[in-house]
Amino acid sequence: MEVVVKETYEEMSRLAAQNIAELIRRRPRAVLGLATGSTPLGTYKELIRMHKEEGLDFSQVVTFNLDEYVGLPEDNDQSYHYFMWENLFKHINIVPANVHIPDGNALDIEEACVDYEVEIDDHGGIDIQLLGIGSNGHIAFNEPGSSLGSRTRIKTLDERTRKDNARFFPSINDVPKYCVTMGIGTILEAGKLILLANGANKADAIKAAVEGPLSASVPASAIQLHPDVTVIMEKAAATKLEREYLSEPHKLEL
Ligand code: PGA
């Protein structure tokens, strides 16, 4: 696992965007796994800048998002469909048919979950999966106790997650109770994982995910099983870590 600690949120975001841009330049048909939440916003801003100023081309890129609330209309401003179009897709030249976000309004959600996994496979799997981390250690909406082998499915949101996300809704009663999320097993099949974290409220979760034991109680600790993970964080999220980490990705000098 590569762990990189940056001074600022902007530097964290730039490094994540550079990783994604390098993949797209090398592989124009890249399959990206994308995340919502406040953490990746800076990364998306930088990708939009690269598209506008440097011609980063998304015309063949395929995306799969991690999760979505159940029962929120796609045009609700708290749905993850809305979030992705507002904060990334409408600013770049992605083809709408290449965008995949779990359907929280499907008539048969369980079937839609199975179809989602099949679609990922049909595209040859995800090349880079971007991840945030919940203050309770969740990745995507895999709350503590999620099976480390789980697949895309319906989950009940943790009360802590509902409280964390209540800031975006009129009241906590408006936060959906259920979601559809890729499973931890699904996430671990991506070619590379990039986990981002900023802010002191993530320091405990980061410590547990990066240095703690592997445990379903801290779903993000499952990244320790993956052979190609980069954790990029801003220094406030790193304050509880005990080992020393670099401020730049490691370069082999043979
Ligand atoms: P945040 O959420 O980026 O809004 O902190 C991260 C998460 O819950 O996975």
Which structural category fits the helices and strands?
Answer: alpha/beta
Rg over C-alpha atoms, rounded to the nearest angstrom:
17 Å
Give the name of the CATH architecture.
3-Layer(aba) Sandwich
Q: The CATH topology, please?
A: Rossmann fold
Q: Strand sequence of the main sheet, in spatial order?
A: 1-10-9-6-2-3-5
**Number of structural units classed as domains:** 1
- Residue stretches low in confidence (pLDDT < 50, at least 5 long) are none
Q: What is the CATH class? A: Alpha Beta
Record field, number of beta strands: 10
Bound compounds, each kind once, are:
2-phosphoglycolic acid
Whole-number average pLDDT? 96
Our measurement of the CA-to-CA distance between the termini, rounded to an integer number of angstroms, reads 20 Å
Quaternary state reads: single chain
The major pleated sheet works out as: 7 strands, parallel
Helix content: 25-40%
Q: Shape from CA axes?
A: globular
Q: What is the count of helical runs?
A: 7
